[in-house]
């Protein structure tokens, strides 16, 4: 049987490979510290769960929704106004089945085959995978530590800038755990307008920013809606991951065009999921703030703990992850991850799975309690690998 040529470039996802390693070790009765996948271990707030449960008990909520409830759209608009001081109209918002799905499909609405799309290196895999499905030409922009993992827009040659249809950007950025200053967004918007490039901003982690700083929205900067859109997800802020509830907001023309595309492949989000999202967006934010504090405590335990043990970890600025170079004496991040796991049961993600510039790095997800993180640090410190 012959399959599509595009499948030749899609290997089994790294998370599936790591999960198989984990399962084999657990079957052998050995201890595993799983820092590989960024699935929150916190639970959704009680009022969110109750809203889903109450709606799920009503038979009329099992039909096709065929779109977003008006109350849901209003809740997103209200959230953006209160949280980011951004004014949105109804036509500037539409839901997606999780931001990963949205990113995977948006270039079908924006691009023709062969158009140029700029994506970060390193960056979350769907930033590359999604546009590639649309048959575009992927060109990467480099993110390096010496420049604070910010794109050097002035280094993008004029031919590429003029050819590019859109650029994918995300801060706080998974996997490198850095935030961007206001000056970057101001520069990005001016550069995008000058070159007629659409900005697609993934805003998954603005509620998980550390050291008493407050995450912002790309849309809160002047001129943003003129050049781009933003994906906003409930997955990490509200632990609503399995419900797959996210939104595209910003430029009306882009939002409405994407909404028209998705109407051909989607019959709308399950009503109980929409009711839960309304409860999250309109309810108290105490749980979101308390959760951020807990993530920061975990960041401190992991980054500071490994640094004291002799493996330098810079403190993450945001996201629910930590990022570091592999220890001295190692030259291959995949081989290091496997050796670390075999010796200690500590499982993390090799940086090369996020792009060529992720090579020689690893990413840890902050999904275990502080006391378990401290155990993992001791296991690494005691095994001799450092």
N-C termini distance: 48 Å
Sheet-strand content, in percent, reads: 5-15%
Strands, total number: 12
Q: Briefly note the structural class of the backbone.
A: alpha/beta
Defining key terms:
386 residues, alpha/beta, Aspartate Aminotransferase, domain 1, Aspartate Aminotransferase, domain 2, 2 domains, seven-stranded mixed beta sheet, three-stranded antiparallel beta sheet
Structure summarized in a few sentences:
This protein is an alpha/beta fold and 386 residues long. Helices cover 42% and strands 14% of the residues.
Describe this structure as you would to a colleague.
The model has no long low-confidence stretch (mean pLDDT 95). The chain has 14 helices and twelve strands. It has helices spanning 14-27, 46-56, 70-84, 99-110, 126-133, 158-163, 182-195, 224-227, 235-238, 252-262, 271-282, 286-309, 333-344, 370-383; strands at residues 33-34, 93-96, 116-121, 137-142, 164-169, 198-203, 228-233, 246-250, 321-325, 346-347, 349-350, 361-365. It is globular and about 60 Å long. With 386 residues, it is of the alpha/beta class. α4 runs parallel beside α5 (126-133). The protein has a seven-stranded mixed sheet, with helices on both faces. It folds into two domains: 5-43 and 286-383, Alpha-Beta Complex (Aspartate Aminotransferase, domain 1), CATH 3.90.1150.10; 46-282, Aspartate Aminotransferase, domain 2, CATH 3.40.640.10. 42% of the residues lie in helices and 14% in strands.
């Amino acid at each position: 049987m012959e399959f599509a040529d595009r499948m030749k470039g899609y290997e089994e996802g790294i998370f599936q490979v790591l999960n198989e390693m984990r399962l084999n070790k657990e079957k052998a009765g050995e201890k595993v510290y799983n820092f590989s996948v960024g699935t929150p271990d916190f639970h959704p707030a009680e009022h969110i769960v109750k809203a889903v449960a109450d709606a799920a008990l009503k038979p009329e909520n099992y039909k096709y929704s065929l779109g977003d409830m008006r109350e849901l759209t209003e809740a997103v608009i209200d959230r953006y106004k209160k949280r980011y001081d951004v004014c949105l109209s109804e036509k500037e918002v539409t839901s997606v089945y999780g931001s990963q799905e949205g990113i995977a499909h948006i270039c079908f609405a924006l691009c023709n085959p062969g158009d140029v799309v700029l994506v970060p290196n390193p960056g979350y895999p769907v930033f590359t995978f999604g546009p590639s499905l649309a048959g575009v030409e992927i060109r990467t922009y480099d993110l390096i530590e010496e420049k604070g993992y910010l794109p050097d827009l002035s280094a993008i040659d004029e031919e590429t800038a003029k050819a590019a249809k859109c650029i994918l950007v995300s801060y706080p950025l998974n996997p490198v755990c850095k935030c961007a200053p206001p000056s970057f967004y101001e520069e990005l918007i001016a550069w995008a307008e000058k070159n007629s490039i659409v900005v697609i901003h993934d805003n998954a982690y603005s509620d998980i920013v550390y050291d008493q700083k407050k995450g912002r929205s790309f849309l809160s900067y002047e001129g943003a809606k003129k050049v781009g859109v933003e994906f906003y997800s409930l997955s990490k802020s509200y632990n609503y991951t399995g419900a797959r509830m996210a939104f595209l907001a910003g430029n009306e023309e882009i939002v409405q065009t994407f909404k028209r595309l998705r109407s051909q492949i989607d019959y709308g989000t399950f009503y109980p999921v929409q009711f839960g999202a309304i409860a999250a967006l309109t309810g108290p934010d105490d749980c979101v703030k308390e959760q951020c504090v807990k993530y920061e405590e975990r960041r401190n335990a992991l980054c500071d703990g490994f640094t004291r043990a002799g493996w330098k970890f810079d403190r993450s600025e945001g996201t629910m992850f930590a990022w570091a170079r592999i220890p001295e004496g190692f030259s291959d991040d995949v081989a290091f991850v496997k050796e670390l796991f075999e010796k200690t049961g500590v499982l993390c993600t090799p940086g090369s799975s996020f792009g060529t510039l992720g090579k020689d790095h690893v990413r840890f997800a902050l999904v275990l309690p502080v006391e378990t993180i401290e155990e993992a640090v001791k296991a690494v410190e005691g095994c001799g690998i450092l």
